[in-house]
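Weekly structure sync - notes
Attendees: PM, LS, DV (DV joined late)
Agenda: review two folding runs queued last week.

Item 1: First target. Sequence and structure tokens pasted below for the record.
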Amino acid sequence: MVGVRIIGLTGGIGSGKSTVAAMLAARGASVIDVDAIGRANVAPGGPAEAAVKARFGPTIVGSDGHIDRGALARIVFADGDELAALEAISHPVINAEIDRSLDAIAARRGEPDDDLVVVLDMAVLVGSRLGRDLPSGRGYDTVVVVQAPVEVRVARLVQHRGMAEADARARITTQPDDDAQRAAADYVIDNDGDRDALRAAVDLLWDRLCAERATHQHGGRP
């Protein structure tokens, strides 16, 4: 995918990351849902299911013989070493699937495609090589972080996802804090307002990305 811009889009739970991904798709980007790839990884028959069951044992296996994702989450989100063990199994498999998705996008849209922006919608980016160390040598070259105040995120999780407040706060504390995310970001979208404000922020981001591509394509001349 020569000349294609690959964006790593991340944000903590409840920040609105996936909403931003959908808005970018509406503006012409191709979006790869890395989180969905990760879920499929450990689903029944998934490529990492057997290895994860072997590593974590019967306590994560449900009555149907497959991984109970809730039980697995309770283990890995409470212990950094256990989370690292899960990522060591799953991330290489996810990266290989991202590569296949990039190839499928290229085949569908044709090469070269100088106007193509691909967004990797991914919760796990900061402190990870997910989406970066792809088998093909490709990976995201720009990081966009979506942020919102913790209290706003908790309210969204309770109201829109039906999570208990304590569970929402516990999930938030397992993820990189705002400072760590901002340190990794090329662009930050603050999603603490209404949907119109978010659309305006995404429009500004899209215009900047397009301007950068135009500058690059013309040898650095705007």
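Item 2: Second target, run right after the first with the same settings.
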Amino acid sequence: MEIGITGLGRMGAGMAERWLRGGHRVVAHNRSRGPVDELAAKGADAAYTLEELVSKLAAPRAVWIMLPAGAVTDNTIDALIPLLEPGDTIIDGGNTHFPDDQRRAAMLKGHGLNYIDQGTSGGIWGLENGFCIMVGGEDELVRRLEPAFLTLAPTDGYVHCGPVGSGHFVKMVHNGIEYGMMQAYAEGFEIMRAKKEFGLDLHAIASAWRYGSVVRSWLLDLTEEALGQDPDLASLKGYVEDSGEGRWTIQAAIDLNVPAPVITHSLFERFHSRQPESFAAKILAAMRKGFGGHAVKQAD
């Protein structure tokens, strides 16, 4: 089938190349020329403007947007609307907040255009291993575009979750779970590292856990690889960003009256990692000194 895509970052470029390998015709657009030229060398049709992207696709068109969530994606959709024709479809494969999907779908319907949300997981490894694809949209429309979704995904790695918004909702919760799993691994390895008397080889332990253990996972594989390259992770700074999905998952839990203490704690730990020195910890030290005369450490 014919596929248009705008946004050739790490995920978008990998998706486009996987489609090419699957025999689809891909028209590729990006704000800068370099990624477009790279994909053109691999068989894609180059488009250096959105107008060119749309003009090179036959109706009914399918245009994937792989851009940061929020204003950038909204602005791109606004720019595409006058270029597209009734019956064309926009698919957002980024990490959009699901209420934005519902808003956009209603707005686009007024222009005779369709909208699908595609939760995408797989990162930089998706090109070779396949992307886990979580889709939200109308049944008939999703079925028409399924060849593209199935090409992106490994065997059994694609699911049509439900109506518009459901794909990104499921991806949001997926990332919330990811936060919790990552935090549990991080705490466990720090506990083992602190037990100096045993002289534990954390790389060897991570490697052994990958085989037969109930905690084996891809995240553990990545941990084992990192420890193999740098046992003390001396080259890294313990500063951890969040891209929004953890916050949205916690807000959904609050809205739905569902307890989610692990995911919530893992997000707050990411905030903690960004503090060079915690003012809250200073307050705690001051209180302990005040009521119990406990010793405190003076600032440098």
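Discussion on item 2: The CA atoms of residues 123 and 192 lie 29 Å apart.
Action: LS to circulate a short write-up before next sync.
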